[in-house]
Amino acid sequence: MLRFLRSLLTAVLVAVFVSVLALSRLTGTAAKQTQGAPGAPVPGGGFGGGRAQTNDATDFTPKPPIRARTAAEEAAGFILPTWQA
Fold this sequence. Notes:
By secondary structure, the chain is mostly helical. It has helices at 2-33, 71-76. It has a domain at 1-28. The protein is flat and about 70 Å long.
């Protein structure tokens, strides 16, 4: 029983060490990549990339409001999963 607990404790300590090492490396590389003035936006940075920019082809004309669906229209839109036994 003591041998099992010792090996379990060793495994947990190794896992914690590897996690801390990985996190420290991630935060270290993120800090090195920031450039420019503090608070300045980084184009396309972070997860998911950047957002599309507006240009002359962007349509800002007024649109009609979206009509709420009735209960019958909502019910018609449901598709229940089918599975075979």
